[in-house]
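Weekly sync, protein design subgroup
Attendees: M.S., D.O., the rotation student, P.L. (late)

Item 1: inverse folding check
M.S. brought a backbone from last month's batch and wanted to see whether the design step gives back something sensible before we order anything. D.O. pointed out we never logged the input encoding, so this time it goes straight into the notes. Structure tokens as presented (195 positions):
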């Protein structure tokens, strides 16, 4: 069933025809004024078949009603009501400097344990200050430490903070057990005197 054009659509078509006629009278090249674009836009909206169930194809989601077609014809661009696909533009949430500071404290503790230098440990206040500085630099230079990259970095840091101390303790226990076995073996070896 065809849809009848509304008064607004008829008025927009009349305004388009008047604008085209005015351009022709203003001294543009002597070409016949083609009134078909406005009538085609209205006919396209009226002859539109009834849509079935389900989501319409991408080319039918926006820009097919008469107002959008007229806006494209007159303005030469997209209709104002058409939305752009994707996430809405806006400021993304930055990384949490406190959480980043806590991770930096943990990383420094790991470095201290691995290298045997207790001077490498930093306090939570120093970690917070360092985290705020890192987030500030990232914000200024447009670097993202959140999203997929941030999640991967946080996973790596959390695994390092959880498993690295355990690996160190296991290695120390193996070394102590090996030393104890060696001491037992040395204690059981009879010693011979030269006398």
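Designed sequence read out in the meeting:
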């Amino acid at each position: 069933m065809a849809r009848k054009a509304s008064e607004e659509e008829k008025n927009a078509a009349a305004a388009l025809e008047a604008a085209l006629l005015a351009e022709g009278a203003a001294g543009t090249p002597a070409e016949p004024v083609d009134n078909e674009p406005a009538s085609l836009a209205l006919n396209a909206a009226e002859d539109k078949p009834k849509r079935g169930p389900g989501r319409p194809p991408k080319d039918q989601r926006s820009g097919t009603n008469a107002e959008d077609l007229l806006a494209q014809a007159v303005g030469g661009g997209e209709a104002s009501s058409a939305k752009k696909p994707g996430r809405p533009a806006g400021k993304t949430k930055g990384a949490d400097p406190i959480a980043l500071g806590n991770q930096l404290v943990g990383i420094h503790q790991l470095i201290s344990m691995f290298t045997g230098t207790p001077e490498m440990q930093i306090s939570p206040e120093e970690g917070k200050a360092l985290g705020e500085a890192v987030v500030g630099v990232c914000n200024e230079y447009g670097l993202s430490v959140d999203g997929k990259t941030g999640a991967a970095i946080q996973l790596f840091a959390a695994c390092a903070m959880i498993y690295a101390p355990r690996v160190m303790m296991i290695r120390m226990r193996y070394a102590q057990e090996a030393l104890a076995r060696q001491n037992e073996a040395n204690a059981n070896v009879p010693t011979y005197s030269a006398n």
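Discussion: The chain is about 60% helix and 0% strand. The first helix runs from residue 7 to 25.
Action: P.L. to compare against the previous round before Friday.
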